[in-house]
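INFO  loader      accepted 1 record
INFO  loader      residues=713
INFO  predictor   begin
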Amino acid sequence: MAGKVRKTFFITVAAVILLAIILFAVANWTKWFSGGSVKRVETDRGWWSSSQQHFDSQPEIKNTYYRDNVTLGSTKGIGEQSAEHAGPPAQNAPLYTSNHLFGVIADGVYFGGFTDLQPPDDYPTQSRSFIQAVDLGTHKENWLYEIANDHSLDFLGLSETMVHFVIGEREHSLLYALDQQTGKLRWVIDLPANLGYPVIAHDQLFAATNGGKLFAVDLTDGKANMVLDLSEKIARFIPADDYLFVESDAYRLYSLPEGELVWARPRESNSAFAISNNRLLILDNNGRLTCTSFKKGNAEWQKSLPSSEHHPIAVGNGLVYTGTAVGKLLGFQVETGEQQWEMTIPSTTSISSLKVAGNSLFVVAQIESDSAWQMLAIDLPTKKIYWQIDNCYNPPDIDHDLALLIYQGYWVVYGPGTITQNANFDTFREYVEYIEVVFHQGPHGWPELGEVIKTVLAKYPNQQVCRKGSYDLAVACFPGAPFLLQMLGQIYRHAGHTEKAMQCFQRMIDDYGAESYFTGDDKGRDYFYAGGEGYLLQIETLRDYLKDYETALTKARELAISEYGEYGQSGWEWMEHYYKIALDQIDVTLTAMNAPLARWEAEYTKVYQNLLDPNQTAFVVLYLANKMEDAGETEKAIALFNLLRTEYREAYDLWGELGLDSPALSACESLIDIFAQQNRSEAEIRALEQEREEIYDFMIQDAQKRYSGCEEG
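INFO  predictor   done
INFO  writer      dumping C-alpha cells
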C-alpha cells in the first residue's frame, strides 16, 4: 500500500488481566508442585467430568462419502506397510476428513478430537466436543468419548495402549488417559496451566511450563514428578534413552532421572537440530552444519552450506537432509559428513520443513514467490516427486501406508485408493468436506470439481454451513453458496473460462452481498463478506488474467464507494475495510500499468470525492498525500496534509492495524518531518506538535465514549 499510516495504541485492561493471571500462577505454584508431584483427580465427580457412553442425541456420523465411495487400493489392507513408499502410494485418496482439533493415526486407526458442528436442540448455543476412534479400513467408529462442555482441547497423543489428551483452563490443565481399544477412562490428573506442547516417550509424558519447569508423568499410573527447573523458557525438548535434550537459551543435555547437567553449548537464534545415531546435528543461521557427540557434546565434523539462510534439517537412512532457498536438497552421511545425495526442485523460493519416512522425503516448499506452499513427496532412490498437495504447511504424520495432513482447518488421512467417479453424496456436509479437500489440494484436482459444485448449488441453494470458532466454542452458521461460488469461479478462471468466472463472482455480489462467511474450518474466525470478495475476485480476474487494467480500476473504485466499502475482512481483534483493500488493488493495478504520477493522483481523487463517510475519505486523502511525498511532490503533499488537519481533524478508524488510526495525526507527524527538513521555524514545529497532542487526546476520549456506549448497550 502506498500509504505509510502512523499508528497509535489504545491501552486496554488486557495488561491488568495478564498481570492478575501471572500473580495467580505465582501464588499457586507451590500448590501445583508440592512434593514434586501433581495432584491426581478422582474420576467420578468434578466440573471436568466426562463420560464414554452413547447419548440420546448422537453427533451425526461423519464422512459417509468416503466410506461409500473410496475404492481401497491396498493389497495388504489399510495400515500396513506399502512396498513402494512409506506413506500413501502415488495412487491415493482422502480416506477420512473432519474439522478435528487434533488428530493422530496408529495401526490403521484415526484418533481425533472433533466438534459436532450441527448441535441438537438441547445444545442451542454451544457445540459438543468428542474424542473419537475410527477404523480407517472399515470407516466404523470404534468408540466415542465426550469432552466436558466449554473446555478447549490443547493436546492429543498416544502411548502404547492409551490415548492421552489435555484440557486447558486458565488456572490449571487436566491430563486424561483413555484405553485405545475401548475409549474408557483410565485416569485423569491435575496439571499446571500454560503448558508447552507435551512429548510422549518411554511410557512417560514430558511437559514444560512457560516458567521453565519440566516434569514427567508416568503413563501407566498417572503419577507425576518434577524433572528440571531451569527458570527460563524452554523452546523444545527431546527425551532420548536415559537423557533429556533441552533447547532454551542454550543447548543442554541432562541425565534421567537425576536431572543432572551433562553438557551445554551455545545456541544461535534460528538454528535447527536433529538427533540420530547418538549424534546431535545442528544447522545454524550462518549455514554451518555441525555434528556433535550426543552424550559428550564435542564436535565431530562440520560443513558449510551454500547459503547462510535458515533451513530445516531431517534425518533418516543414515543421512541428514537439508535444503537451500533455491530449492537444492542435500544429504550428508551422519557419521562422516560426506555428501551422498542431491536434488533440485525447480523454481523453489523457500523450504520450510523436511521429514524422512522410509525411502520418502517429504518437503514443504514454496514454488515461485507468490504461490501457495506445497507438500511434495519425493522417492529418495529415484529423486522423483510422486505426490503433491497444495496449501499444505506441514509434512504429514506417517503410519505405514497412511498419511495424516492438516490444511485449511481440516485433518485429512490419505491412503491407497481412488475416489469413485460420479458417486452420490448423502448430505450437504459431505459435499462441503469433499469440495474443500479437493479444491485446496490444488488445480491438479479441479477438472471435475466444477461439475460437483454446480450440482451442489442446484441441489442445496439455501443450505447453511456450520463451523466452530476456537475462542468462544460457539457454532457459526452461514449460507454455503457464496464460498462455493468463489471456488467455482476460481476453477473457471484457472481453466480460461473468465466470462463464467466473472458471472460467479457477480452472483456473490448480487445475491449474497451482505452475507459473511469463512472458508475452511477457520479457528481464528476470519470473516469475509460475499459482496466485497466478489468485487476483489473480479478485479483480480480483469487485471491478472484479462489484462484489462481500465475496467479493473473502475471495479476497484466501485468497491471503494459501494455499500460494501464499510464492511471488511475481519477476525478476532482486527478488521481491514474493503475500501482500504480497494486502494491496495488500485495501487497494484497502476503499478502493473506503469502509470504516471498524474494518473495516481486522478484515481485517488475520484475515490475520495465520491465517498460519503468522512472517516473513509480522510484515509484516501492520506494515502494520496503519502504518495505525493514519496514521489517528491512535496508542496502537493503539504496541501493534502493541511486538508486533513482542517477538514478531517476528527476522522479516525477504531479498527486500525495496530490500534486507533488518525489521518490528521499522521498528517501532523509527516508535516513535522517535512518542516524539519526544510528548516522551518521552531514555532511552526511546536505548533504542529501541540496540534498532534490535541488530536490524540480527542481520539482517545471519543473512542472511550464509543466503547462505553457499547458496554452500556
